[in-house]
Here is the input.
Amino acid sequence: MALKPELVSREVQPYASITNEVPMGSLGEQLPPQIGEVFGWLAARGIQPAGPPFWKYNRIDMEGDLEVEVGVPTAEQVAGDERVQGHLLPGGDYVVAEHVGHPDKLVGATGELLDWARANGLRWDMSESTDGEIWAARVEEYLSDPISQPDMDKWQTNLIFKLAD
Here is the structure.
């Protein structure tokens, strides 16, 4: 396994985000511009980001639409508006693994991480519904971007998945 998963405890993390309903194949087209939109929204209010941007998968239906948030951590919870909302990532135990490579390869890395957790008897904070899997926190944290690292094959992304209590 190329990933080196770690178990970590995380505190509750406030963040600002835009929520999207998107088909699986359109994530890369629709979501990246929203990262700048959330950063701009925070800047207009004098709020400093408290970390790198992320995508949070709330609902996953591989055959239908996904509910995905484009988020940016903040030091304190923010009041949102009709476009950008304030939320909290839950505190608790997580599995974190760094992926180095093109973001298109994150599907394979996620599969590795899911297999590793299953082999180690870990359970995700996730439930099944008729609309797909509902996740408490399944996050891709983007540590690289086109300005800091133009070679996307060298991008660093943290996979941060919440474990069941």
Remarks:
- The chain has one domain: 6-162.
